[in-house]
Amino acid sequence: MLTRRHALATLATLPLLARCAGSGSSIRVGSKNFTESFVIAEIYAQALEAGGFNVVRRFNLGSTQIAMAAMQRGDIDLYPEYTGTALIDVLRRPPMQDPQAVYATVSREFAKRYDIVWLKASPMNDSQALATTKAVAARERIATLSDLAAKASSLRLATIQEFLARADGLPGLQRAYGGFHFAQVRTYDIALKYQALLDGQADVASAFTTDGAIATNQLVVLRDDRHLWSPYNVAPVVRQQTLAAHAKIAIVLDAVSPRITDAAAQHMNAAVESDHKDPADVAAAFLAGKTV
């Protein structure tokens, strides 16, 4: 499975890179190297093409640092970025929980430091989460992390190793909610933790809120009722110079971003990762209104 934080290079990269034919006056749309970034960048690219722009795709750039470097060199004009990633990984600020405050901070600092503009953010929030099956949620009567904190001592957690060490992983849960001392904790590869949950070898699994497995398996995401985790809303970030020359970019992309929800992202990620569809086809279906 390809996720925001665990990108692999095995996605159908060649068809995407084949779209990178050069054009001097084109809008160059970039992406990082994981499913969700491919799909959302493709949504931006196709929306701009529908708006009359000539678009060059420069996808599969790699990490946030590589994408930002490409922006600063002028190799790309825009790409999808996450507010939480920009706050913590780029600006090196401590985590914040208020989505509007995070957006205001990254918008202000990116404009000041990098001449990069944040356009309208999507409601989609690819943040950390704990998920369970409908059966376990009903049996244990858990809907929130507070509910789970009180029941954890009789439940089993499937997770990745990183979640046990991160300040905003299990230690953060214990600090924010108390409790969270599971009867059993086992670590798995990213995709296998979901399989452990579905096979009944675990009661709860760590997750990201837009994982395709959530939609595919109709899992329940427990509500972070004490707002531990920072928001990771996605938005187009655009070079100021490009936006000054092509103001219509903001009109086009600001019309699309509000449509990208958690549910839509889950289904689109699942379509690529589980059904092996081309991200371009998934993006086209979304823009045609054929995705949740």
Task: Describe this protein's structure.
The chain is α/β, with parallel strands linked by helices and 292 residues long. The chain has 15 helices and 10 strands. The protein has helices at residues 13-17, 35-50, 64-73, 83-90, 99-114, 134-140, 145-151, 161-165, 170-177, 190-198, 212-216, 240-245, 248-256, 262-273, 279-287, and strands at residues 27-30, 55-58, 78-82, 116-118, 128-132, 156-159, 184-187, 204-208, 220-221, 234-239. The strands form 3 sheets. The chain has a 5-stranded mixed β-sheet with strand order 7-6-8-5-9. It has a 3-stranded antiparallel β-sheet with strand order 3-10-4. It has a two-stranded parallel sheet with strand order 1-2. Helix 2 links the parallel strand 1 (27-30) and strand 2. Helix 2 packs across helix 13 (248-256) and helix 2 crosses helix 15. The longest helix is centred in the N-terminal third of the chain and has 16 residues, at 35-50.
Fill in the keyword field for this structure.
15 helices, 292 residues, three-stranded antiparallel β-sheet, five-stranded mixed β-sheet, alpha/beta
Task: Estimate what percentage of residues fall within beta strands.
Answer: 5-15%
Low-confidence sequence ranges = 4-24
Strand order in the sheet with the most strands: 7-6-8-5-9
**Helix-and-strand structural type:** alpha/beta
Describe the secondary-structure layout.
Layout: H1 13-17, E1 27-30, H2 35-50, E2 55-58, H3 64-73, E3 78-82, H4 83-90, H5 99-114, E4 116-118, E5 128-132, H6 134-140, H7 145-151, E6 156-159, H8 161-165, H9 170-177, E7 184-187, H10 190-198, E8 204-208, H11 212-216, E9 220-221, E10 234-239, H12 240-245, H13 248-256, H14 262-273, H15 279-287
Parallel strand pairs: 1-2, 6-7, 6-8
Antiparallel strand pairs: 3-10, 4-10, 5-8, 5-9
